[in-house]
Amino acid sequence: MTVSDYQTAPHEATRNACYLCAPLGASIAFSGIARCLPYLHGGQGCATYIRRYTISHFREPMDIASSSFGEEATVFGGKDNLFCGLKNVISQYQPDLIGIASTCLSETIGENVPALIEEFRQSVDLGETQLVFASTPSYAGSHLTGFHKAVLATAKALAVKKEEHGGINIMPGMISPADIRYIKRICQDLGISAALLPDYSDTLDGVSWPEYHCFPEGGTPVSVLKGMGGAKASIELCRFSDPQLSAASFLEKCHGLPAYRIGLPVGVRAADEFMDLLSGYAGRPLPEGYTRERGRLLDAYVDAHKYVFGRKALVYGDADFVMGIGRFLAEIGMVPVLCTADKGGNLAGQAEDLLAGVEKAVVLEGADFADIETLATELKPDIFIGSSKGYKLARLLGVPLVRLGFPVHDRLGGARLRCVGYAGTQELFDRIVNALLEHRQDESDIGYSYM
Amino acid sequence: MIEILKDRKQQVREGGKAAGFDMVCDTASLAGSVSQRACVFCGSRVVLYPIADALHLVHGPVGCAAYTWDIRGALSSGPQLHRMSFSTDLREKDVIFGGEKKLYRVLTELIDTYHPKAAFVYSTCIVGVIGDDVEAVCRTVSREKGIDVIPVHSEGFRGTKKNGYQAACQALSRLVGTADTAGISKLSLNILGDFNIAGEIWQIKEYYRRMGIQVVSTITGDGRVDEIRRAHGASLNVVQCSGSMMALARMMQEKYGIPYLRVSYFGIEDMSKALYEVAEKLGDEAMLSRTRELVSQEVASIMPELREYRRKLEGARALVYTGGAFKVFSMVRSLRTLGIKTVVAGSQTGDKDDYRQLADLCDEDTVLLDDTNPLELAKYVQEKGVDLIIGGVKERPIAYKLGVGFCDHNHERKICLAGYSGMLNFAREVYTSVCSPVWSLMPRRRLHTGGEQT
């Protein structure tokens, strides 16, 4: 593994960024709480842009309220706007929780939002509505930072009950709704009661409605989140994000629950680790269905080993996603020649362990797509794995792109792409192999129909 | 049923014409109302985005640039620089110590790398707050690099999207009038306020060519810096998206004496009217007769298929919600051509005059909405039994969740909807959605796509 050999030329400009801003991540995380409305304390544009962007991926209604800062609020402070905004949201939506996130604007004018929220709490009868605040200036970290900050803020604000209930907490990170559904199913099949923070498996991938609701069905209820302090353990599928932002670590410190920060369970080894952990807590072996899934996956590994061995992949996206996929690729004999993710975690530090034995894997933090283009031209990957944002470059280089992560807005079903556990890995594996086969056919003069 | 927020009641007109037209509009969005509207930056970015040989640098944290990366369907016949997302990506230390130095370095670096014809630097919210002297940095870089580096005062909090349009027009006015106008015909015009979504401007230019008119510049669809510099040499400005471009048209009238026309290229009626008006303004009897021939040829070529669609769509009910108000008029007329009644109409940025005109154009009981939100839209979709929503990406999930057809008429679409063939595409789009059999499976559906179909 080398990092230094392939540094791109230093540059100041960000040219086609690989990451988005913190309030977006916070909004997605808040969407995974039942009857929760994300609320941005800042300008109208931030809420609208984030809505538009997330709608393009999830293709679901995405209501995000804002304080609609104008010049006056920017100069004299946004208290009136915040109070007015919260009152309007409460009267129209009657939410169980308002997930308030700040923006670069409100942070920079020095708004003390927690104090304002406290004042608001004193001044009105909130009834059952909870208010949670995450400080998410967009110049600190990325959308992942915002996501984790919202998760941590929710755990801090809600997890109060210490009565033991034998369940566990799972902080899945920013994975797809379908991945979350799969994790829930495993827990259900093992008889584990799991509090997922967040759980947008239904809220951001739901059914058609007979009439419009203020909130989509689903999400983890506030009452369940309140009980997080009484769980047996917390499992976080994010090991690269900033440990300071770990909700599992917070619950460990405050409520004494063991915290497991494991990576994304993609690939047999990583999925085993996750499944073993769950089955250990359930006190029972994994149901046979899952061992069959695992067996089929191994069988597929064998069937396709020649197609993938030595093939070079370029993986980009969020740190945990990228390293999870990188580790899986190493497991099947592919070479993750370039893994890039946003800054803010400890990617390079932990990459050594994860990609041990993989030669020539370049791990790069904070790259933009112009950097990726430079490196890709040099490293000549056979395949791209990541969001839709790599499409232009993949097309330019004539390599297939397996879409995964966020955003996938040039294909249907971004919310239904799976990669975790045995079944998720199976889907990803098939997609990778088939993309390579399809590419071989496309490149062939003869066009064999029998590969 | 969903209640309209108290402070928004005057922005909704549902009592029919008798209720009067004194709608409240042109105001900041109400906090907490989940407005469909964006910000000043959005307004500027939309307008200037299609200038393809300019560098568009967003000065601020990463979000504003990331959300507008290659977002629009604005096509270029040459350079593709507009499709890149450049950002100063301000970080904490830049916010504390100021972003001017970084802006200088980023600008210099990007200009050296991409050799643009000019550069636009968009100020975002935070830049307004930390007080970077963007103007001064632009001046320095402009001097050093020998190209126009133009600041766009688009701090998000400085008003609504409309103020962003004005900021864009101000930026454009710095380019107009800076090049020689030799060789420009008397029969010439600038196309303002068409953004070449899916190549629409190429079609409009072709109409003008057939009429015998020279197009000096297109502002800003398929726009080029050097053409915009010469725009003051044209005899007429033809403004489509008037919300965004009237400021520039007025400025050019004052400064260069160029008259302007407000037109729309959407729908048979408005498209034809636009061509006739231009012919009257610029041409002679010969041009008028060429225009008549053009219009009758084009209309004849699409009518048979259009009639087929009308037969299938007759009786359907639509909700139209767009960014600018002027476009709503064309939509209402185009839908009428297809036998569809507009039961709800509104825009993000309409003014009183727009809504008065809209009220005149629509039916007695059409609901008018200014700066609305998902809950209101959903309420009227249900109450009015809407079969079709015309809007942008943010309105789409509201339609689809409720099992209602949707047609994207925003900047992100990839289908040409302007001109005569555009009208046919529009009809096809509407038909494809409204008459899809999937709706009959939806939990809320009372299909009345009517006509001879049902």
Give your account of this protein's structure:
The complex is a heterodimer of chains A (451) and B (454). With 451 residues, chain A is of the alpha/beta class. Chain A has 3 domains: 3-14 and 295-443, Nitrogenase molybdenum iron protein domain (Rossmann fold, 3-Layer(aba) Sandwich); 22-158, Rossmann fold; 168-282, Rossmann fold (3-Layer(aba) Sandwich), CATH 3.40.50. Chain A has helices spanning 22-30, 44-58, 71-76, 79-93, 104-108, 113-123, 143-158, 177-189, 222-226, 247-255, 268-282, 288-308, 319-331, 347-354, 369-379, 391-397, 421-443, and strands spanning 14-15, 36-41, 65-66, 97-102, 130-134, 168-171, 194-196, 233-236, 259-261, 312-317, 335-341, 362-365, 383-386, 401-403. The longest helix of chain A is centred in the last third of the chain and has 23 residues, at 421-443. Chain B has 454 residues and is an alpha/beta fold. Chain B has 3 domains: 6-23 and 314-413, Rossmann fold; 40-175, Rossmann fold; 188-296, Nitrogenase molybdenum iron protein domain (Rossmann fold). Chain B has helices spanning 40-48, 62-66, 92-97, 100-114, 125-130, 134-145, 161-173, 200-211, 225-229, 242-256, 268-282, 285-313, 326-337, 352-361, 374-383, 396-401, 419-434; strands at 12-13, 54-59, 86-87, 118-123, 148-152, 188-192, 214-219, 236-239, 260-262, 317-322, 341-347, 367-370, 388-391, 405-408. In chain B, strands 1-12-11-10-13-14 form a 6-stranded mixed sheet, with helices on both faces. In chain B, strands 3-2-4-5 form a 4-stranded parallel sheet, sandwiched between helices. In chain B, helix 1 (40-48) crosses helix 7 (161-173), helix 7 runs parallel beside helix 10 and helix 13 (326-337) runs parallel beside helix 14 (352-361). Mean pLDDT of chain B is 94; it is low at 446-454. At the A-B interface, strand 1, helix 2, strand 3, helix 3 and helix 4 of A face helix 1, helix 2, strand 3, helix 3 and helix 4 of B. Strand 1 (14-15) of chain A pairs antiparallel with strand 3 of chain B. Chain B: One of its GO terms (biological process) is protein-containing complex assembly. Chain B: This is Nitrogenase iron-molybdenum cofactor biosynthesis protein NifE. Chain B: Keywords: Nitrogen fixation.
